[in-house]
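Entry:
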Amino acid sequence: MSLSEAEFFEAGMSLPPDVRKHVALRLLQSVDPDEAFELGTDSWLRTEVAAAYDELQTDPSSALPSDDVWARLESKWAARH
């Protein structure tokens, strides 16, 4: 099955916003990995990191020990490969 550019765009726009973001970054990475990395990093910093920082400022007791954070990151990284 082959889609035209317009059909592909319309199909993509029917996806939830978070899925569209991931698909867009994967598509961009397929043609320009460096730009995809920069956009993905910028998006992550502005959304997830900023929200985590705000939450920590509001409730410092929600902080996790760095060993726990590293263990989670290593687990997520291992699951990707």
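The longest helix spans residues 33-58.
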